[in-house]
Amino acid sequence: MIGERDTRPWGTWQVLDEGDGFKVKRITVRPQSRLSYQTHEHRAEHWAVVAGRATCVVDGRVVLAGPGDSVDVAIGQPHRITNLEDEDLVLIEVQMGRYTGEDDICRLEDDYGRLSA
Where is the Mannose-6-phosphate isomerase type II C-terminal domain (predicted)? Predict the structure, then answer.
């Protein structure tokens, strides 16, 4: 739902837009924090960095991205976003796929004890 937001151990997200087959989120990652290493069964993701510096892992490959850079993640590819800096990392995430629900996450590694069953 547009406007939906949540606070996670690593930062926050907010839904900016959504429609049939897509969802757009603003994601803020706190300094020295990272999301889980995860996969999605139903969606691909496109990350556009707008502030800060992202250290991303996509299918085992490290990608550094700053403002104006983007990173693509295919359906099923393991991925993670990390903020190794001392200021917030802000990115816009475009999810594309037949299903974009929050329960389409399979956590492979997690710093906060939230591994998938």
Answer: 7-110
CA distances from 17 to 76, 93, 97, 107, 110 (A): 23, 11, 14, 25, 27
Where does residue 11 fall: left (phi above 0), alpha (psi -120 to 50 degrees), or beta otherwise? Answer: left
CA distance 116 to 38: 9
Give the distance from CA 116 to its chain's centroid.
17
β partners of residue 89 = 29
Q: How far apart are CA 111 and CA 18, in angstroms?
A: 29
pTM attached to this predicted model: 0.92
Question: pLDDT tens across 5-34, in order?
Answer: 999 999 999 999 999 999 999 999 999 999
**Contact criterion met (CB below 8 Å) for 16 and 26:** yes
